[in-house]
Write a structure and sequence with these properties.
homodimer; Arc Repressor Mutant, subunit A; 3 domains; six-stranded antiparallel beta sheet; 11 strands; 18% strand; DNA-binding
DNA sequence: TCTGGCAGTCAAGGTTACCGAGTGCCAGAC
DNA sequence: GTCTGGCACTCGGTAACCTTGACTGCCAGA
């Protein structure tokens, strides 16, 4: 589609613009990309590139600026992600060497890591798949007069809990029996195990048990995706127009929108969405770099970076890639309860570090 | 300290400046505060007020702007918090009428509520006191080969969990016995119950039990304060200098600093800290309005509002006051497990609403 | 097909002048 | 003594204007 020279010129323009945030002139390209031609020739080529929609001239006497299409070509023709700088690599190594507490904490910190690696805002979407783990222990505990708590410990250390309302006439003994029956039924299998609890003979007990079972099968309201945003404040550094900052922060508030955005991008099989490629008008000046991460070999969640369209795509791609890989691995490490956890309460690794360091990012956690 | 007329003039200046964000002239004050004197007189008074440090003139031909000291006088002489507007009151009522899920979720949403009420950023610091609840149920569950999970359900529905590393030679039966012994020892009392577990006769079991007890007595690493920030993006609307926005967002990233700030203000017995009154140079353009909230009659956490020094103090004060009261009450409602929870895993109220509405704020949750 | 040169265009920056908002001060009234 | 009206003064802000310089587009010639 583009001959070598045009491609080289386009690449040069994109690179310069990403670096300097200023329109790139033909002379600058000439001296940077050693093409052996004069500025005039470059000018001609640039005029063609503009006609074809790769470049744009803010005004007549200015240099050229890449369009979304220009960035797209740049990204697609990228030799591949740049290797991570040594200091960054060290950061990643350090980060994943430490053991983190529960999943939420890990993901939250991961968003900060990614943000620090790239210097853009980072987004981490938590896994929303229900815990697949088998039940290791089940208990029904009476709390108040007409209130009980169903607590299940899953094999991976996660805890599922549901509040159960008791009809008035249930006795403590009946709760106990129902608990035992449910434990016998559930332990060793999935929490949502189908079928009915074997009858105990006592009607109230059986009713309680089946009601509890029903509740357990309903997904937790936490099922909605959780989003962690790291380094939102870096957006204020990436742009200098107040209005843009406002728009972007505004979108980041609507975390539901953000999750949908990332999902869409991934679903379209992309790892980069540039400018208007994702349909959000208020993020027209932003690009998104995403990668899924896996738990037990299955796509579980998403990590991503949100930055200006003139972002360092190569670095962002690498960072996102590396972090998603490492995160997958960290979550993979099976029984290790320090990480493979979701929705359950908190766990802490017995050798986990003390109180976390002061947050460095406007981290965000919400139920989108 | 200030005679009535000076006070009236100062108040008028502050009010106008809060409303218009523009230096206030003597003429404007004259027509607004019906003092029955001419602009010239007001000018003379304003000159005195400036000399005494209540007002400031950005430049010679400009009107006056309040200093921190001026705002302080204004706040202190405030007749009292303004009543909440009807729409706001409705918002609060609606909010607290709904049942919320677990504590974290509630606090997170509270920060958004407060932000929406005031149109500034809101901060909610979670209670950091350990759950005082009595143990209702205790269990030690083997997870992996050398890994167990201690799970305690407290009377208020909270769940405490600790990971326990098992020495290699422990059998499943021994874990079981230790679990039973610990349950017998702990249930009905506090989780940190002092004393030793009664011996079972089996050395390994006893060792495991006492090791577990030891772990239980150590505070969870989540003991560090959690902070929820709602509506951080509103800061971008409150200021129009990019550099200020950057500074403020920067501080909000360092959530540890933020917590300390709120703590300091409260400890000094203040409910409002204006401009440089709190020592943070980068928040010199900001004021903070705080109030503690209570759980079981004891100070548990803090709610606060962070806005520009020219904030609507009366409204902010009311909002913070009302929200802290209502929050205390919501958390008070004793056995109700839907709210009185911390650190434990998640619980959901059986009649809790489905997936929350899309987040409207850059909410933030971190371990400071 | 490339190149050098030249004219054209336009943003940015600096200068000037002007306007107007607001003060300070003073003399006179109450 | 206190207040007021009036007047001169001060500056920030805006607009008009010009200059500069950085580009490009185009064209004629290599």
């Amino acid at each position: 589609m583009l001959d070598d020279r045009k491609a080289a010129i386009l690449r040069a323009v994109v690179e310069c613009y990403i670096r300097d945030a200023q329109p790139v002139s033909s002379a600058y390209v000439t001296q940077l990309a050693s093409l052996g031609v004069s500025p005039a020739t470059v000018r001609n080529e640039m005029a063609v590139l503009e006609q074809e929609g790769y470049l744009l001239q803010p005004h007549a006497s200015a240099g050229r600026v890449p369009t979304d299409k220009g960035y797209r070509f740049f990204v697609d023709s990228l030799a591949g992600p740049a290797p991570l700088g040594e200091p960054q690599a060290e950061l990643v190594r350090m980060f994943f060497a430490r053991t983190h507490g529960e999943l939420e904490h890990l993901l939250h910190e991961t968003s900060e890591l990614l943000s620090r690696l790239t210097d853009y805002a980072a987004v981490v979407v938590a896994p929303n798949a229900p815990e697949p783990g088998r039940v290791r222990s089940f208990q029904l505990v009476t709390l108040a007069h007409q209130l009980a708590l169903a607590v299940a410990v899953l094999a991976n250390g996660a805890i599922e809990r549901r509040t159960i309302e008791l009809p008035g006439e249930v006795t403590e003994a009946q709760v106990h029996r129902a608990s035992a029956a449910l434990a016998a039924f559930l332990v060793g299998g999935p929490l949502e195990r189908s079928g009915a609890v074997p009858r105990t003979g006592d009607l109230t007990t059986d009713n309680l048990a089946s009601a509890t079972l029903q509740t357990l099968r309903q997904p937790d309201y936490e099922g909605a995706e959780q989003v962690f945003i790291g380094g939102a404040a870096r957006m204020a550094t990436a742009f200098d127009a107040v209005s843009t900052i406002r728009k972007v922060l505004g979108i980041m508030e609507q975390q539901f929108v953000l999750v949908t955005l990332l999902k869409d991008v991934l679903d379209r099989g992309l790892s980069v969405a540039i400018g208007t490629e994702h349909g959000l008008a208020s993020l027209a000046d932003c690009s998104v770099v995403v990668a899924p991460y896996e738990v037990d070999g299955e796509r579980a969640g998403t990590v991503g970076v949100l930055g200006p369209t003139r972002m360092h795509y190569d670095q962002a791609l690498t960072a996102v890639e590396v972090v998603s890989k490492k995160l997958s691995k960290a979550l993979q490490e099976g029984g290790k309860p320090s990480a493979a956890r979701h929705r359950g309460g908190r766990a802490r690794d017995s050798h986990g570090g003390g109180p976390g360091a002061p947050g460095r990012s406007i981290g965000s956690q919400s139920h989108a």
